């Protein structure tokens, strides 16, 4: 198998200690560095402004609580009707022989996946698995935060339900990658710890208008998981394709919820909502893991983004 590295894409390679992918052979050597991790010490990307929303705007969100109950909470799925990660994975309860055979079949399927695809899949997995950052982020919004961690406020109920549904995404992708044997899970786990520790600075200012504008943009970006499903079919892993497609369906439903919120805000307070949209566009919507860092290279997010975008364009064009 040809080694994949940052230098292959005309991007400076980070120091050789950062690794993600294993070779497909039984060799103990690993691929050159191709992915970035997040730093707990990375400086904020901009001057941080907090609590920019005036009290009268907070009251608008309070007044919308009954609307949230009627129009947003129904978009939750009951737990008993939700899929769970084990439904897509080798099941250890079936006994050791069946479990081992299912793992062997999984490992055979993933042999058809390219290194570039796995880079994108690891990126999706880390974005999904950094969930604590996103729940914390929403709970900084004035007017909608969960004040007690179990608040009966409809805004808070939605945030907890959304988080519970999202939590399955990272769990499933991480376990699949772990069983595949194609990924350096120690590096992935360190990356995740760095990422959650670093947090995210998107400039929302504790402002629920700006925050929801950011979330709907993120939801649209995460819908890329649907493209990952098509690519998995092309590369010969129908189970992974079903996993990515199922996650994409969840994300679309969540995107619908946040679209409804923005549409309602445009209805009840169009001027402030448009100002929030303009403000976030000026700041540029950045991905949640924009503080990527491995303790050595401060430009790792740019390195990863360049590879991701180039590889994604090549893959998508191959499907057309």
From TrEMBL:
Fe cation 2 binds at residues 166, 251, 254. Residues 1-11 have a biased composition (Polar residues). The keyword Metal-binding applies. GO terms for biological process: fatty acid biosynthetic process. Residues 1-26 are annotated as: Disordered. Keywords: Fatty acid biosynthesis, Fatty acid metabolism, Iron, Lipid biosynthesis, Lipid metabolism, Metal-binding, Oxidoreductase, Transit peptide. GO terms for molecular function: metal ion binding; stearoyl-[ACP] desaturase activity. It holds the Pfam family FA_desaturase_2. Binds 2 iron ions per subunit. Fe cation 1 binds at residues 128, 166, 169, 251. Its cofactor is Fe(2+); Fe cation. This is Acyl-[acyl-carrier-protein] desaturase. It comes from Solanum verrucosum.
């Amino acid at each position: 198998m040809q080694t994949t590295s940052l230098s292959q894409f005309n991007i400076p390679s980070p120091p050789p200690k950062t690794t993600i992918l294993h070779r497909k052979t039984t060799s103990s050597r690993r691929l050159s560095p191709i992915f970035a991790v997040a730093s707990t010490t990375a400086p904020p990307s901009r001057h941080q402004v907090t609590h920019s929303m005036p009290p009268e705007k907070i009251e608008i969100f309070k007044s919308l609580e009954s609307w949230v109950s009627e129009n947003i909470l129904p978009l939750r799925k009951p737990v008993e009707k939700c899929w769970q990660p084990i439904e897509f994975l080798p099941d250890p309860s079936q006994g050791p022989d069946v479990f081992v055979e299912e793992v062997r079949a999984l490992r055979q399927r993933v042999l058809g996946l390219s290194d570039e695809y796995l880079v994108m899949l690891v990126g999706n997995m880390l974005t999904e698995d950094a969930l604590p950052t996103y729940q914390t982020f929403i709970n900084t919004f004035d007017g909608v935060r969960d004040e007690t961690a179990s608040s009966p406020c409809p805004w808070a109920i939605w945030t907890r339900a959304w988080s519970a549904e999202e939590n399955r995404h990272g769990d499933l992708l991480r376990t699949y990658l772990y069983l595949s044997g194609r990924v350096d899970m120690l590096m992935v786990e360190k990356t995740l710890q760095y990422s959650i520790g670093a947090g995210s600075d998107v400039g929302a200012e504790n402002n629920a208008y700006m925050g929801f504008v950011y979330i709907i943009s993120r939801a649209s970006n995460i819908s890329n998981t649907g493209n990952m499903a098509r690519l998995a079919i092309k590369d010969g892993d129908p189970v992974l394709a079903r996993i990515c497609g199922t996650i994409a369906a969840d994300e679309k439903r969540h995107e619908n919820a946040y679209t409804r919120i923005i549409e309602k805000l445009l209805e009840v307070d169009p001027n402030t909502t448009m100002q929030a949209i303009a403000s976030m566009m000026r700041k540029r919507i950045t991905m949640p893991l924009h503080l990527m860092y491995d303790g050595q290279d401060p430009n790792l997010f740019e390195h990863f983004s360049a590879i991701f975008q180039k590889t994604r364009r090549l893959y998508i064009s191959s499907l057309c």
